[in-house]
């Protein structure tokens, strides 16, 4: 699990991720999802770019 990415531009809070439903202390307030889901989405987007 990588934790290199910093989210200084985001405010993190403890809560339930709206995507995976997991309790996390790293919920992006603006997004409602945990950083894991946001990272997954980023990775997915990058992968799709490569495939096209
Ligand atoms: Zn999540």
Distance between the termini: 27 Å
Compute the average pLDDT. 86
Estimated structural class: alpha+beta
Biggest β-sheet: count, sense, barrel? 2 strands, antiparallel
- Provide the succession of SSEs: EEH
List cofactors, ions and other ligands: zinc ion
Count of DSSP-assigned helices:
1
**What is the global morphology?**
elongated
Strand content: 15-25%
Count the E strands. 2
Radius of gyration: 12 Å
Spatial arrangement of strands, main beta sheet: 1-2
- Quaternary structure state of the chains depicted: single chain
Total domain count:
1
* Unreliably modeled segments: none
Give the helix level as a range of percent.
Answer: 25-40%
Descriptive keywords:
52 residues, 21% strand, alpha+beta, two-stranded antiparallel sheet, single chain, binds zinc ion
Structure description:
The longest helix is centred in the last third of the chain and has 17 residues, at about 35-50. This protein is an alpha+beta fold. The protein contains one helix and two strands. A two-stranded antiparallel sheet has the order 1-2. It has one helix spanning about 35-50; strands at about 10-15, 25-30. Bound molecules: zinc ion (ZN). Zinc ion (ZN) binds near residues 22 and 33. Zinc ion (ZN) binds near residues 33 and 37.
């Amino acid at each position: 699990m990588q934790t290199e990415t910093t989210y200084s531009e985001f405010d993190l809070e403890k809560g339930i991720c709206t995507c995976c439903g997991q309790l996390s202390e790293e919920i992006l307030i603006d997004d409602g999802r945990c950083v894991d889901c946001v990272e997954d989405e980023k990775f997915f987007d990058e992968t799709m770019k490569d495939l096209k």
